[in-house]
Amino acid sequence: MGLVTRLGSGPAVRRSQQVTLALCWAVLVVEGYDIVVYGAAVPMLLRVDAWELGEREIGLLGSAALVGMLFGAIVASLFADRLGRRPVLVSGVVVFSFGMLVCAAAPTPVVFGGGRLVVGLGTGVLLPTAAAFVAEFAPPGRRNLYQGVVFGGIGVGGALSAVSAIALAGSGFRAMFLVGVLPVVVLVPVLLRWLPESGEFLVARERAAGQPSIPAGSWPLLLSRDYASRTLLFWTATFLSLLVLFGSYTWLPLLMNRAGYDLGSSLRFLLALNFGVVAGSLMSSRLADRFGGRRVIFGSFVAASAAFALLAQAPPMLAGYALVAVVGVGAVNAQFLVNAYVAASYPTMHRGTAVGAALGIGRLGGVLGPVYGGWLLAERFPVAAGFYGFALPALLAAVVVAAFPGIPGSGIQQSAGVRGGRVRMQDSPGPA
C-alpha cells in the first residue's frame, strides 16, 4: 500500500480515534456558538439606536451567515475529498475567528453583515468535514453513537453562547462576538499538533491514484441513476430542517419575549434549547444504533413539530422550558442524524462531497429561515403564528424522511488516522 501502514486494533489506534473525535467535538462547539450567538444578540442589536434595525433588517443580517455557510459547505464538498479532511477543518476555524473579529469591530450594519458572511464561510466547512471524520473514525456498529456525542458539541457551544449573552448583556453585542476570536488562538494550535488525517481517506485516495476521475466525479455520482433519488430526498429534508433550525435559533428569544416572557427568561430558553440538543444527541444516537436512523429521524421531526404547536398555546414557564428542550432534541438532533445518514450512504471518496452538497443545498433553507421568521414577526401576525410557522416545515421534513432509502451494504471501515505522514488504522466490517 505504499505509505500506508496497517496496524491492529491496539491502544494506539483507540487513542487516535478518541483524540480525533474529541477534537471534532471541540470544533463543533465553535459552530454551536455561532449558530446561537446571533439570535442571542438580536435584542441587543435592536437597541443600537445608530443602526436603526427592524425585524426585516435583522432577518437579512441573520441570513448573511447562512449564505456564507452555503458557500462554505460547497467549498468543503470540493476540497475535503481532494485535499483531505484535516486542512479543510483547520482552515474553517481560522476563517470563522476572523469573521467574528470583523463583527465585533463593525462600525456599520453593512460591515457587520460582511463579518457574518465570513463567519458563515468558516462554519460552513466545519459540519460536513467533521461528519466525514466521525464516519471514518467511529468504531463499527457505533457510528450513530459517536456522531451523536461529537455533534453534541454544537449544543454545548450554543449553551456557552446563551451564557455569554446573559453574562455580557450589559456590555453589548460586541463582547459576545469578540469571544468568537478565541478559537484561532486556543484551538487551531491544538488541531495542528494533534489532529490526524483520516486513514480511510488516505487509503481511498491511494487506490484512486492515477484515476483523477474518481474524486472529480463525485457530483455526477450524486445525481446518477443509482443515487439521484436518495440525493434529492436528503437535500429536501436538509432544506426543511435548516429552515427550522436557523429560523428558530434566530428568532426564539424575541418570539418568547413577544409571548410574554422577559428578556432574561427568553435567553434562558436558549439554554433549555441547547440542553435538549446535548441530551438528545446522546439519547437519539443510541436509539438510532438500536432501531435505525430513519425511524429516529422521523420521530424527532414529529416531536419538534408537536412542541412548536404546543408552544403556540402560551404554556406556563416550566412547560415552556420543557417544550423548547424537545425542540432541541427533535429539530436539531434530527439534522445531526441526517448528516450521519448521508455520510453512511455514499462511498468514501464521495462522502465529503455528499455531506457538503446536502448541507450546501440545505443552507438555502437556512438562509430562508431567518427571513421567514422575520416576515412572520414584522407583519404583526399573532405570536402563535410564529410557532405554527416552524411546526409546519418540521412536519414536512418528517414526511420526506419517511421516504428515505436504506443505507447501502457495508465494505471495509478503516478506523484510525495519520499524523506525521504515517497511517494508523484497523480494518473492520462497518457500514459504507
Characterization of this structure:
The protein has 432 residues and is mainly α. It has a single domain (11-406, 416-430), classed as Growth Hormone, Chain: A, CATH 1.20.1250.20. The chain is built from 16 helices and 5 strands. It has a 3-stranded antiparallel sheet with strand order 1-3-4. Helix 1 (11-45) runs antiparallel to helix 4 (109-137), helix 2 packs antiparallel against helix 15 (348-378) and helix 5 (143-167) runs antiparallel to helix 12. It is a multi-pass membrane protein. The chain crosses the membrane at residues 21-46, 58-80, 87-111, 117-137, 149-169, 175-195, 232-254, 266-284, 296-314, 320-342, 354-375, 381-404. It holds the Pfam family MFS_1. Residues 20-409 form the Major facilitator superfamily (MFS) profile domain.
The CATH superfamily appears as: MFS general substrate transporter like domains
CATH class: Mainly Alpha
Distance between the termini: 21 Å
Coarse shape:
globular
Number of domains: 1
Please, what is the average pLDDT? Answer: 79
| Main sheet specs | 3 strands, antiparallel
How are the strands of the biggest sheet laid out side by side?
Answer: 1-3-4
- Specify the number of helices: 16
Counting helices, strands and paired strands, the structural category is: mainly alpha
Strand element count: 5
Low-confidence stretches: 1-8, 410-432
Second-tier CATH architecture: Up-down Bundle
The level of helicity is over 70%
Short précis:
The chain has 16 helices and five strands.
